[in-house]
């Protein structure tokens, strides 16, 4: 029988992360790109590095959240606010791949709710 799960996995990979062409950037270099003293302003979402130095001035959510996460990872925060298609429209901001760049905040665990229980059961 055909294994659709791996096919789905690779489709998601293609749409969200066709990033093999991007250079690998060491975490220390990413963390140094904090937008201060003339350096570039980079943020990391799902181990992809985005250069938001110029974009931050036209970001609909303002400069502040991007400056706050400068040189850091903010994947779950990004996902809480934006739709799944948002990054598709901003591929030109991608400058590299990285790993080991920490997120400064732990993701809060979802609190119990009858709705959550219902969605897990059915
Ligand atoms: C490459 C990085 C980012 C891109 C391309 C981006 C793009 C956008 C876009 C297009 C919108 C308009 C709404 C939408 O289309 O989803 C938006 C809104 C917003 N973004 Fe971002 N964003 C980025 C990173 C972030 C980060 C890291 C944060 C904070 C953790 C953030 C916080 C917000 C907020 C607060 C809004 C306003 C939401 C509202 O008014 O309802 N963004 N962003």
From TrEMBL:
<dbReference type="GO" id="GO:0006665">
    <property type="term" value="P:sphingolipid metabolic process"/>
</dbReference>
<dbReference type="GO" id="GO:0046872">
    <property type="term" value="F:metal ion binding"/>
</dbReference>
<keyword id="KW-0472">Membrane</keyword>
<feature type="domain" description="Cytochrome b5 heme-binding">
    <location>
        <begin position="22"/>
        <end position="99"/>
    </location>
</feature>
<keyword id="KW-0746">Sphingolipid metabolism</keyword>
<comment type="similarity">
    <text>Belongs to the fatty acid desaturase type 1 family.</text>
</comment>
<protein>
    <recommendedName>
        <fullName>Delta 8-(E)-sphingolipid desaturase</fullName>
        <ecNumber>1.14.19.18</ecNumber>
    </recommendedName>
</protein>
<keyword id="KW-0408">Iron</keyword>
<keyword id="KW-0560">Oxidoreductase</keyword>
<dbReference type="GO" id="GO:0016717">
    <property type="term" value="F:oxidoreductase activity, acting on paired donors, with oxidation of a pair of donors resulting in the reduction of molecular oxygen to two molecules of water"/>
</dbReference>
<keyword id="KW-0479">Metal-binding</keyword>
<keyword id="KW-0812">Transmembrane</keyword>
<keyword id="KW-1133">Transmembrane helix</keyword>
<dbReference type="InterPro" id="IPR012171">
    <property type="entry name" value="Fatty_acid_desaturase"/>
</dbReference>
<dbReference type="InterPro" id="IPR036400">
    <property type="entry name" value="Cyt_B5-like_heme/steroid_sf"/>
</dbReference>
<feature type="compositionally biased region" description="Polar residues">
    <location>
        <begin position="1"/>
        <end position="18"/>
    </location>
</feature>
<keyword id="KW-0443">Lipid metabolism</keyword>
<comment type="pathway">
    <text>Sphingolipid metabolism.</text>
</comment>
<dbReference type="Pfam" id="PF00173">
    <property type="entry name" value="Cyt-b5"/>
</dbReference>
<feature type="region of interest" description="Disordered">
    <location>
        <begin position="1"/>
        <end position="33"/>
    </location>
</feature>
<dbReference type="InterPro" id="IPR001199">
    <property type="entry name" value="Cyt_B5-like_heme/steroid-bd"/>
</dbReference>
<comment type="pathway">
    <text>Lipid metabolism; sphingolipid metabolism.</text>
</comment>
<dbReference type="GO" id="GO:0016020">
    <property type="term" value="C:membrane"/>
</dbReference>
């Amino acid at each position: 029988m055909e294994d659709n799960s791996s096919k789905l996995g690779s489709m998601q990979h293609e749409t969200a992360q066709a990033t093999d062409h991007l250079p690998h950037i060491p975490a220390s270099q990413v963390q140094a790109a904090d937008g201060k003293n003339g350096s570039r302003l980079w943020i990391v979402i799902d181990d992809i590095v985005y250069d938001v130095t110029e974009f931050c001035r036209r970001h609909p959510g303002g400069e502040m959240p991007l400056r706050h996460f400068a040189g850091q990872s903010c994947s779950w925060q990004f996902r809480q606010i934006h739709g799944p298609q948002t990054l598709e429209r901003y591929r030109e901001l991608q400058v590299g791949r990285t790993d080991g760049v920490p997120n400064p905040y732990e993701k809060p665990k979802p609190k119990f709710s009858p709705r959550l229980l219902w969605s897990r059961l059915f």
